[in-house]
Amino acid sequence: MLKDKQVVLGITGGIAAYKAAEIVRQIVKGGGQVHVIMTRSAQEFIAPLTLQTLSGNPVTTELFQLYQEREIGHIALAQRAQILVIAPATANIIGKIAHGIADDILSTVVMAAKAPVLMAPAMNEAMWENPIVQDNIRSLKKRGYHFIDPGWGDLACGAQGTGRMAEIEDIIDEMAALLTPKDFRGQKVLVTAGPTREMLDPVRFISNPSSGKMGFAVARALRQRGAQVTLISGPTALAPPRMVNVIPVQTAEEMRSAVQKHFAETDIVIKTAAVADYRPKKISPEKIKKGAASLSLEMEKTRDILGELGMKKGQKLLIGFAAETRKVNAFALEKLQKKNLDLIVANDVGRKGSGFGSDMNEVRLIFRDGRVETLPALPKEEIAHILLDRIITLQKESRARKKK
Ligand code: PMT
Predict the structure, then answer these.
(1) Residues forming CATH 3.40.50.10300 domain(s) in the chain
(2) Ligand 1 center to residue 373 CA distance, Å?
(3) Which residue's CA is the closest to the ligand 1 atom numbered 31?
(4) Percent residues over pLDDT 90 in the chain
(5) Strands (DSSP E) along 4-80, which ranges?
(6) Is the separation of the CB atoms in 279 and 254 below 8 Å?
(7) The ligand 1 atom nearest the CA atom of 322
(8) Which has the closest alpha carbon to 15: 174, 158, 170?
(9) Strand pairing of 83-89 and 117-121?
(10) pLDDT tens digit sequence for 96-111
(11) H or E segment at 342?
(12) What is the mean pLDDT of residues 53-66?
């Protein structure tokens, strides 16, 4: 979503200014162009050369510096911006913008910009709680400025409290959301992610290597595109995506109950979770002791969550994922038909560097009418957005059919 986007990043003077280097790196990695503006105080914390090197563009520091005005004037910078991000944003810059003061390069560019402005405040807790700061934020929000609130944690002053700049991943996610058309607005989507764990005894379980990355990427993409998202996830090490209702579960049966509970209010279900097909028939109440040379476990089938939804799907869209190691298309198509799905995303999990645990995936989209779209190896975020594009097309086709 940041590809080819023109981002103006304003950095103001706070200790979190050093984190701006990583923000620049992430935007560049996402294919965006970054133009950095630094206030004088920001330069006390991080050198303009660092940001110039990382962004590959000149860093603007002065309002009336001849060579910089020749390179790119402040009005041109404001016009060029598709989004303006201020991270970190001090109480000072928030106050200035709230009161229409434009007395340095950053506040002047903000005043001249028509693009959305996102601010990531970072300050001491007492400053953050100051009613003047809070009033300024409220008044800016009313005027359409966007904020990503600071979190709780260790502050530069040595205290702990609220005032730490939001996580970089969340700032990037919010930027992407502001730049993304809201084509899923008004839709409620249920996503499942991660593995399930089926206990053998109090300290052992049967599971699989799903990291949750694919499902979390789908949930994040949906949120960026305006959907109301419920994410039911097995155990993962991932941070919960912002503004997504996350429901943690452990076992296939717990996932089934959570899915069933939310199904009625859902328009679309996307099941990326790797659910156990079998679980131990009995869970030993005590730790199984080492003894005999071999140990047999009796397993029983879990209930097929998606299969059950397929039987009562009505007008809802059901999207499955299939993890296969052979006959990928044939087995995936079989699952699509058996579970009454609209689309199945098939991955060959035998391939190295994609599927379980990886940041990349290589998938084929298999539709109800047998159409197959083969995608190259792509980051899971990109696959998520392509999948959402295809869901929008399916919905348009279905509306067109109903009109006939
Ligand atoms: O989490 P990552 O590390 O990012 O990895 C992503 C992934 C490889 C897990 C993901 O891309 C993927 O392929 N997910 C589906 C894995 C799987 O369990 O496939 P399956 O072929 O066993 O199941 C087919 C479909 O039925 C799936 O949508 C599954 O959620 C669903 N199912 C399966 C069993 C069951 N008891 N109930 C179900 O609903």
Answers:
(1) 188-280+298-403
(2) 19
(3) 306
(4) 87
(5) 6-11, 33-38
(6) no
(7) 21
(8) 158
(9) parallel
(10) 999 999 999 999 999 9
(11) none
(12) 86
Encode pLDDT of 382-396 as tens digits.
999 999 999 999 999
| Residue of 191, 210, 303 to test ligand 1 pocket, by largest number of atoms within 8 Å of CB | 210
> Which atom of ligand 1 is the closest one to the Cα of 208?
9
Average the pLDDT over 16-35 and give the result: 96
What's the token pair of residue 190?
């249920």
Domain 188-280+298-403 adopts which CATH fold? Rossmann fold (3.40.50)
More confident residue, 68 or 221: 221
Whether residue 153 has its Cβ less than 6 Å from ligand 1: no
Is residue 190 in contact with ligand 1, taking CB distance under 6 Å?
no
Distance separating alpha carbons of residues 325 and 327, to the nearest angstrom: 7
Extract the tokens encoding 317.
Answer: 């869209």
Instruction: Name the amino acid, one letter, at 24.
Output: V
C-alpha 275 to ligand 1 mean position (Å): 6
Class of domain 6-179: alpha beta
User: Reading across the β-sheet that carries 117-121, which strands appear in turn?
Assistant: 33-38, 6-11, 83-89, 117-121, 146-147
Start-end of CATH 3.40.50.1950 domains in the chain: 6-179
Atom of ligand 1 at shortest range from CA of 213: 4
Q: Please, what is the end-to-end C-alpha distance for the chain in angstroms?
A: 35
In whole angstroms, give the CA distance from residue 213 to residue 211.
5
Residue nearest to atom 10 of ligand 1 (CA): 272
Q: Residue 346 above 70 pLDDT?
A: yes
